[in-house]
Amino acid sequence: MDINEILKERFGFEQFKAGQEEVIQDVISKKDTIAILPTGSGKSLCYQLPAYLLSGTVLIVSPLVALMEDQVAIMKRNGEKRVVALNSFLSFTERTHIMQHLERYKFVFVSPEMLLQSYVLEKLKQLSLALIVVDEAHCISQWGFDFRPDYLRLGEFFEDMERPNILALTATADDQVLQDIIHYLRLDAVKVHKYSLDRPNISYVIQEMNGEQEKTQWLQKRVKETTGPGIVYVASRRRADELANRLNEGGASVASYHAGMSQEDRAFIQDQFINDEIDWICATNAFGMGIHKDNVRQVIHEHIPATIASYAQEVGRAGRDGKLSVATLIYSLDDIGKIRFIMHEDLPKEEEIRHFNELIKSGVTLAEAAELVGMSETGIRVVQYYLERLSLTDTISRIKEQGIEKEKQLQKMMVIIQSEKCIREAMLEFFGERKAIKPASCCSICGEMDHSWIFDLERKDGQRQLADWSQRLGQLLG
Amino acid sequence: MDLTSLLLYIIRQLDGERTMYAGFHLLRGKRSGQTLQDVEYYQLKPFFGILPKLHIEQFDKAAKVLKNNKFVTIDDHAFVHMTKQGLMAANDLPKFQFNGWDYRGRELLFFARLSLIVQTVSHFKRGEKSFIPTQRDRDIQFFVKKMLYRQPIEDPKFSRTIGQEIVLAMERSGMVEKQKIIFTHRLDGFQCTGWTWNQLATEFDEPPFSVYLSFIESLHLMLAAIERSTDMPMLRKMSERIKVATYLTDSSMKTKQLFAQGLSMGEIATSRKLKMSTIEDHFVEMSINEEQFPIEQFVTRSEMEVVKEKVAELGTKRLRLLKDEFSNLSYFQLRLILGVLSRGGGNWTSTKS
Q1: Which of B51, B77, B96 finishes a domain?
Q2: Of the candidates B96, B120, B139, which is a domain's last residue?
Q3: Which residue range forms the structural domain that includes residue B119?
């Protein structure tokens, strides 16, 4: 059967979306492949379809348990039952059961921390693997904003086995990240497919303001007068809460979202937003990954994003349905100091690294050492990774380099904010692309934007009301 | 109900005998000798561990409110005292119905189990077999999977049975109307999203933390109602191992076992490589919690009697003041006596002396 027939019979599509076919051709010809495709372009088809032409199991490494569970649920709903997720959420019994029958599954999703378990790796070596997929592959790069230290080890794992070809998938990769993916995954004669990350339906606005008060006033007006669903990205948890409170006064329903909230509250907010029960979310960068919502009309940043890549990723959550959307960035000059502080706070300091190293050498457990030194979790894992491979001095200078790199990234973001160049063009250039088309409403530099549509707002007043308790129980269980 | 009012109640009990931070450790459920002792001596069991994750900043804020309102003062030894206004304000406090001593934060585990079960059956009875669980904790998911194994979760009758048990438990618990609303809106299910603390707070026009405290109290009430009842098998199952089985810390438990094997306190300290003072703490903890604590091996009956009288006479449980009165007794002996007295006298199991 050829790939077009499978596309139709298995997936019910008449045509491939841009890029899919070329990627699939390389995958089935057993080549190491990197596919850089924008979000919402059907990345998962790039490994799901080849699976039906290859014998053996497809192994998919995915960074977030929520993403993984989501993908499994979607595939099952579409009729593929031979799919399983191996992650630390499984109970011991379940895991044992799955491990014993692993060869029964066509698709095995695995989190990188599960690969650290030797019994998992041993079992995988016994399987006949058709393909290894590394999803969200930009997480491998410590230059990236989504760095997951466990990803660094993937290349080593796969090299130890007679591995099939690897398909690395991501929605954002500049040249440096691309090089890291190739290097750390140890890819051979790799085929790179890169599709434009441009989103012509999103127009960009950047506007300078005088401090927080002006921003708040602007946002109050904006939320009152223009349409959601929208996301306002802010720099801190405290600001997310404060701003949500202020914006709620204006009649729209607004909620905050950040990692300081309870897991339940976060899940509630996500569900409410996806169900269009609330119009706006004030969030830190904790909000976004794994949230499927197509009709986000506005993304507003009220601080300076730390990197262009993270900015592009966050902006990319607007308009997945292809309809017109607006990305607005409002900033004031004192934001630079704030973002720099947050950026460096996360990075392990030299004396922390030395202290950590001594503790480990003196036989203190990792967890205790981490606690005593007080580094962030990511910080610990990065330091640990380097200390296992490099000398103490080299580790320290490696981490310092990362600090310098972060600063460079911020500078690049500042250039986009302050230059007189088309914002779309500048962002695409960062990803090594040229602007192909100029949409009617491009950006605040190009001018002449028609944003009248954002004022058509239909607010469904009082959608959410407390029920009495028996009514509520009836809704849930009656 | 807010942190300030809880703290006011607690300080009234500790009036002049402890520092402000005794309240902090109490609310967080610190399992140290001192806090465990305080809980008994000052009848604060209901508040023990009701806020295991309380932040010091939040606590300090509440303490500051009490100071600014002149409800409490702090003396040179950092002990906190009630003022006249404070005592008056304390009289107007609502009746708190917590049972922290028995649940210690584990009531949230019960709620997590219940909420995942409700979310699951709410979806399944509508034929929706995949959903993103609000509860991400692996142990909770495992518990629920096990509990629902081979149950007719797609049958609407099954979900109604759970609903009926919840109604019954709420009614018997003595929860007030508002608590029932909070409780049911913290649950979510098919096409029925949950309400965050902030959202509930806006509706009730009170701080989110007050809503939260009210919720915790309602869970304690509900768990007690479930324990009393025999006609809610599902809820009973969900509340399995929520109530603490032993009130002793693990470490005290070990000391108790060694003592029962006939080791002396010194031998226990040596074999466990612990300081003598730690072992003493363990014995004090036992004196507080164990009905059968052999107090006669440490003091005479008459010693205990006179201390009991003195405590009543002085109206204090402060060790240093008592020590001034009884130079013949060690601090350790006094603490043991106070421990036994806090249980209401204890069993005098031996007649010697």
Answers
A1: B96
A2: B96
A3: 107-238
Sign of CA dihedral B107, B108, B111, B116: negative
List all residues 6 or more positions away from A147 whose beta carbon is below 8 Å from its beta carbon. Answer: A139, A140, A141, A378, A382
Number of Cβ atoms within 10 Å of the Cβ of B133? 18
Whole-number pLDDT of residue A167 = 97
ipTM of this predicted complex?
0.78
Q: Per residue in B156-180, is it b (16+ CB within 10 Å) or e — as a string?
A: eebbbbbbebbbbbbebbebeebbb
Q: Smallest Cα–Cα separation from A61: which of A195, A174, A155?
A: A155
Q: Are residues B113 and B153 in the same domain?
A: yes
Cβ atoms within 10 Å, residue A475: 16
Do B112 and B62 reside in the same domain of the chain?
A: no
Same domain (yes/no): B231, B258: no
User: How confident is the model over A17-45, as pLDDT tens digits?
Assistant: 888 999 999 999 999 999 998 776 788 99
Q: Are A469 and B183 a contacting pair at CB < 8 A?
A: yes
Instruction: Convert B7-28 into a string of H (helix), E (strand) and C (coil).
Output: HHHHHHHHCCCCEHHHHHHHHH
* Number of domains present in the structure of chain B: 3
CATH of the domain at B318: 1.10.10
Are B65 and B121 contained in the same domain?
no
Element (H, E) at B317: none
- CATH says A3-194 is which class? alpha beta
The Cα–Cα gap between A185 and B63 comes to: 55
- Which residue in A76, A255, A478 is closest to B196 by CB distance? A255
Residue of B nearest to A87 (CA): B138
- Alpha carbon of A43: minimum distance to chain B alpha carbons (Å): 21
For B203, the closest of A262, A466, A475 (CB atoms) is A466
Cβ contact, residue pair A267, B132, below 8 Å: yes
Domain range A202-338+419-454, CATH architecture: 3-Layer(aba) Sandwich (3.40)
Cβ contacts of A387 within 8 Å, gap of 6 or more: A356, A357, A360, A395
Out of A267, A272, A477, closest to residue B118 by CB: A477
Q: What is the pLDDT of residues B103-141, one digit of tens each?
A: 999 999 999 999 999 999 999 999 887 788 898 887 898
State whether B193 and A272 contact (CB < 8 Å).
Answer: yes
- Cα dist from A211 to A204, A208, A303, whole Å: 21, 9, 10
**Dihedral sign from CA coordinates of A154, A159, A164, A168:** positive
